[in-house]
Write a structure and sequence with these properties.
By secondary structure, the chain is an alpha+beta fold. The protein is built from five helices and five strands. Pfam families: Monooxy_af470-like.
């Protein structure tokens, strides 16, 4: 057998026992969604990329037509990710998006090294990720918050928007 010319490496994740990886995507569903993507899209990433617990942040393009941008983030642990998600400006971004997606769709999938995965898809017209093969159900009740969906309800914080505010006419206005 011929010796390999490939330089192979791997990583030692033992220093990150509670590592969390999250993929996020924002897809333009309607032409006016380009405006939403340009205005709101940059506000989804941590402003200084030094948010407590954020280990790495990467951006990429899922597709050009329809425009679909993505992020991959590595977090020290789930509480750090959830704390950042409920802090400014991300909290306001998420609240505003849940009120009106502005011609876009948004989704995320979360993977925990210690076990557990979860996802949510908001105004995403095409099944992707877990939704491309697993049964889809409304994100209501026990499936409303990401910590509960991943099996860690004890790590949940107050939601950006409560289920009642999101689904009850006139609530939270």
């Amino acid at each position: 057998m011929k010796p390999s010319r490939v330089h192979r490496e791997t990583v030692d994740l033992s220093s990150y026992p509670d590592l969390v990886v999250v993929y996020l995507g924002m897809r333009v569903n309607r032409l006016y969604g380009l405006r939403t993507l340009i205005a709101r899209g940059p506000r989804i990433k941590p402003s200084d990329e030094k948010a407590d617990g954020l280990l790495a942040h990467e951006t990429f393009v899922w597709s050009l037509f329809p425009m679909h941008l993505g992020l991959r983030q590595y977090w020290r642990d789930l509480p750090a990710l959830l704390a950042w998600a409920r802090s400014e400006p991300h909290r306001v971004w998420w609240r505003d998006f849940l009120r009106d997606s502005g011609g876009t769709g948004f989704w995320h999938e979360t993977y925990l090294l210690r076990g557990g995965m979860e996802a949510v898809y908001d105004d995403v017209p095409q099944r992707r990720g877990f939704a491309s093969f697993a049964p889809v159900q409304p994100a209501r009740g026990a499936m409303f918050g990401s910590a509960a969906r991943v099996g860690r309800p004890e790590d949940d914080l107050a939601p950006v928007v409560t289920e009642d505010d999101l689904y009850t006419p006139g609530a939270g206005s």
